[in-house]
Design goal:
The chain is an alpha/beta fold. It has two domains: about 375 residues, TIM Barrel; about 120 residues, Malate synthase, domain III (Malate Synthase G, Chain: A, Domain 4, Up-down Bundle). Helix content is about 45%, strand content about 15%. It has 20 helices and 19 strands. The strands form six sheets. Strands 4-5-8-11-12-13-14-15 form an eight-stranded parallel beta barrel, surrounded by seven helices. Helix 12 packs parallel to helix 13, helix 15 packs across helix 16 and helix 16 crosses helix 19. The chain is globular, with a radius of gyration of 23 Å. It starts with a strand and ends in a 14-residue tail after the last helix. It is an enzyme of class 2 (transferase). It is found in: Glyoxysome. InterPro entries: Malate_synth_C_sf, Malate_synth_sf, Malate_synthA, Malate_synthase_CS, Malate_synthase_TIM, MS_C, MS_N, MS_N_TIM-barrel_dom. This is Malate synthase. Belongs to the malate synthase family.
């Protein structure tokens, strides 16, 4: 039995020919569909396979380095600025000039790649739509392939949808948001596509298929000679940015387009990456359009990085906002770094959903959004994220009122004070109480998110917030941390210590509450019980799993061998 790319045994499998016309060494195990076949062409698959073959060993090495870093942190070390790359941080250099097509990114909307979402987001009035193959998507075969079809049609300008239930036709407006695409992180496999007998790297499949089919039309219709544009998630070190840079250069060479055409914004959403921001931009110098504060994943990463540090316990997750010193320091240093290097510093997500049935509660929620966005624009961010089209006017108004006619603040807000931010600032332990309600909310949200993910939804409205995998990850790792160290819930006067018995009772009670909230019929049809098992196992595991989605992925992989009757 071989050991596959991700360190798991590769089961011995009988060679099955796919319906798809595949190049040598490529085997497709996903369901055949004539629409998918237009994406999974022999040439497109050869492009993906060439990327996989050239970069798989670099990716394996980068993931091994992550494991080594984790071991170091678990033994007591803290993340720090790398002395070996001090020269990169101290030298004066800038990234390639920002393409005019994306100079103005004041408000960006994000969401999964389903057809209606793609149309509505491009029509939303936002400056950018980040189409997400990552945290907002449950990466089953149908979702991934339909997403590729939808993006190809969107770039071609032909995308439309007839909603028979509402008797409404959705199509693109004359003016649309600029499209960025976020592929999956380096760690996620694509188990439906085997290359040389092992699962393809998910992000190379997402990037490769989209780029191959759309680069030419995109540069003509959207990028004004540049593009395509991407968001890059979950990186921990500049060596991972270097791999992306090499992938981009290879793609440009194959396509015969100028070096520096492809541009990407990197999400700074892991704690180790905040110490590598200059180095990440340096590796992507010719391909960068900035960094983004991926703040929910960043909180998740703080717990994960310090999983063996009982002195660094988080308070209730609702208390870990951008006013916490370590979060403010991260945002300020990101702005300083980006503007010094001539690129965008993008703010974080407003996850609120308009509350139509309660105007008073809706206004309270909107006021929170306005305050958050005002803080961002005054700090120097060049733009921000919203999860729902209903938030775009409020966000846009704040940024326009504070930036006037300027497209961005790259040259006007330098944040020289950010030069004084220290390692201690970035690592300061967050303050706040831990409560029974915090434990309950984590459990309730985590289970409901996993249930939705297992049934094909990666972007889930829960309690007036749009939740994605990052929120479920915070819920999971915080529960795990509180259980492992038997923390005292000191915020509600109960003084109860978290242990397995207490957690078991909380899970039982929250499952009953979920059933009551969603209704017995939906509860029985949904995968709540399976989700509960997965989530509970992850929270009580002796070792913290790196990613919830890696474990849960095995539940949504469906292999479709070719049937002899159809030959």
């Amino acid at each position: 039995m071989d050991i596959g790319t991700y360190g798991y045994p590769t089961p011995a499998v009988k060679k099955i020919e796919s319906y798809y016309d595949v190049p040598e060494g490529v085997d497709i195990r996903g369901r055949y569909d004539a629409e998918f076949a237009k994406i999974l062409t022999k040439d497109a698959l050869k492009f993906v396979a060439d990327l996989q073959r050239e970069f798989r060993n670099h990716i394996k090495y980068a993931l091994e380095c992550r494991r080594e870093a984790k071991k170091k942190y678990n033994e007591g070390a803290l993340p720090e600025f790398d002395p070996a790359t001090r020269y990169i941080r101290e030298q004066e250099w800038v990234c390639a000039p920002v393409p005019p097509a994306v100079a103005d990114r004041k408000v960006e909307i994000t969401g999964p790649v389903d057809r209606k979402m793609v149309i509505n987001a491009l029509n939303s009035g936002a400056k950018v739509f980040m189409a997400d193959f990552e945290d907002a998507l449950s990466p089953g075969w149908e979702n991934l392939m339909r997403g590729q079809v939808n993006l190809k049609d969107a770039v071609a300008g032909t995308i439309s949808l007839h909603d028979k239930a509402r008797n409404r036709v959705y199509k693109l407006n004359d003016q649309t948001a600029k499209l960025f695409v976020r592929p999956r992180g380096w760690h996620l496999p694509e188990a439906h596509i085997l290359i040389d007998g092992e699962p393809a790297t998910g992000c190379l499949v997402d990037f490769g298929l989209y780029f191959y089919h759309s680069y030419s039309a995109f540069r003509r219709t959207q990028g004004a000679g540049f593009g395509p544009f991407f968001y890059l998630p979950k990186m921990e070190h500049s060596r991972e940015a270097k791999i992306w840079n090499n992938v981009f250069e290879k793609a440009e060479k194959v396509a015969g387009i100028e070096r520096g055409s492809i541009r990407a914004t990197v999400l700074i959403e892991t704690l180790p990456a905040v110490f590598q921001m200059n180095e990440i931009l340096y590796e992507l110098k010719d391909h960068s359009v900035g960094l983004n504060c991926g703040r929910w994943d960043y909180i998740f990463s703080y717990v994960k990085t310090f999983q063996a540090h009982p002195d660094r316990l988080l308070p209730d997750r609702v208390l870990v906002g951008m006013t916490q010193h370590f979060m403010k320091s991260y945002s300020d240093l990101l702005i300083r770094t980006c503007h010094r290097r001539g690129v965008h510093a993008m703010g974080g997500m407003a996850a609120q959903i308009p509350i139509k049935e309660d105007p008073v509660a809706n206004e309270v929620a909107l006021e929170l959004v306005r305050k958050d966005k005002l803080r961002e624009v005054k700090a120097g961010h060049d733009g921000t994220w919203a999860a729902h089209p209903g938030l775009i006017p409020a966000c846009m108004e704040i940024f326009n009122n504070n930036m006037g006619n300027a497209s961005n603040q790259i040259d006007t807000v330098k944040r020289e004070d950010g030069a004084n931010i220290t390692e201690q600032d970035l690592l300061q332990i967050p303050r706040g109480a831990r409560t029974m309600e915090g434990l309950r909310l984590n459990t309730r949200v985590g289970i409901q998110y996993v249930a939705a993910w297992l049934t094909g939804s990666g972007s889930v409205p829960l309690y007036n917030l749009m939740e994605d995998a990052a929120t479920a990850e915070i819920s999971r790792v915080q529960n795990w941390q509180w259980l492992k160290y038997g923390v005292e819930l000191n915020g509600d006067g109960l003084g109860v210590k978290v242990n397995k018995e207490l957690f078991g009772r909380v899970v039982e009670e929250e499952m009953a509450r979920i059933e009551k909230e969603v209704g017995t019929e939906k509860f029985k049809k949904g995968m709540y019980k399976e989700a509960c098992k997965i989530f509970t196992r992850q929270c009580t595991s002796p070792m913290l799993d790196d990613f919830l989605t890696l474990d849960a992925y095995n539940y949504i992989v469906v292999h479709h061998p070719r049937e002899t009757s159809k030959l």
